[in-house]
Amino acid sequence: MFDTIRIIGKQFRLPGELYSYDTITNGNINTTYRVTYRHEDGSTKAYIFQRVNTVVFSDPVKIMRNIDLVTSYIRNKYPNERTLHFHHTADGRNYVLGEGESFWRVMNWVDSITFDTCDDLAVIAATGEAFGHFQNQLSDFDGAQLYETIPDFHNTKKRLDTLFEHVAQDPCGRVKEVMPEVEYLSSVRLKAGELSVRYANGEFPVRVTHNDTKSNNVLFDRMTKMPIVVIDLDTVMPGMAMYDFGDAVRFIANTAAEDEPDVNRVYFDTAKFRAFCKGYIGEVGSSLTQQELDSLVLAAFSITVELSARFLDDYITGDKYFKTHYPQHNLVRTRCQLALAQDILRKKEELKWIVQETAKEAAVQ
């Protein structure tokens, strides 16, 4: 691997000599290394080398084009702010092909910390601020320039339609085990798919969206715990701003792990929701339409249902997509997300009130 990394680094014209590397285990898709180079004066500089998973991302060139457009735009518009910096080869590409057609990219290492889970409401608010700021940075970027690298990635209606097609086919004979889950999803099918239909009908603006707004996709300063930059731009595509919000609170405000087997431990934490709202709406609220603001809570419900449908669909078709660690892992994930969706629905009026009050506070600041 040392020789492979050295060859990749030369193609990206990195100064100095390769000194060391170590594997970063965070992340389930790409293979990531922290690589250090030593310069003639004895100083060192670290980089992130990533081998992109071309099974998950079948057209990584399009992904890197999207990333190049977005990061270049942010860098030019906000020259004094930290942005992700991907290195380029002599012929201007921000990727290289390695041995066996492996696909590599290199970016600067940022000394920072991340939070997989967090109970600190100040950090949660800062996470909302980071994703809101990212949305603002790209508010006047022409999203039509971007490839839709995963078509219909957050098309909840289509995800549910696919699930019920597979329920009817029952390819693995598992549907009989999951009838309560199927019946619940059937009962909320129209509500969960509503925003996707309205977006397709042009009722919401097309935004540049991140599409993986987990708290661990924000880098924070180690000392101040303030956000530095949003990372993991592989799924940056045109989409609905509300779904970035909804996916973030689905992850952050869940009191349990995504695969918690005891659904009695799963509920939606309104204090964490309020904290994220404060950061996110405080940053981006003035640029969202009233329809978008009014749809934030429904988006949280919809995307939670969408994920549960994806887990259930994978279970009844033989566990081919999500990595599982035991036979009913996807079913456990399904039940956890459904419990969370049900709690969001129970609390929807309180959550809507929080959004409204936060938007009013942001407007007078």
From N to C, what is the helix and strand string?
HEEEHEEHHHHEEEEHHHHHH
Indicate the CATH class of the largest domain: Alpha Beta
Total strand segments: 9
What strand line-up does the widest sheet have? 1-2-3-5-4
How many domain units?
A: 2
Q: Could you report the average pLDDT, rounded to the nearest whole number?
A: 93
Q: Stretches where pLDDT falls below 50 for ≥5 residues?
A: none
Instruction: Using the coordinates shown, work out and report the CATH topology of the largest domain.
Output: Aminoglycoside 3'-phosphotransferase, Chain: A, domain 2
Number of H- or I-type helical stretches: 12
- Going by helix content, strand content and strand pairing, the class is alpha+beta
Q: Estimate the strand proportion.
A: 5-15%
Shape: globular
Quaternary form: single chain
Helix content: 40-55%
- CATH H-level homologous superfamily name of the largest domain: Aminoglycoside phosphotransferase (APH), C-terminal lobe
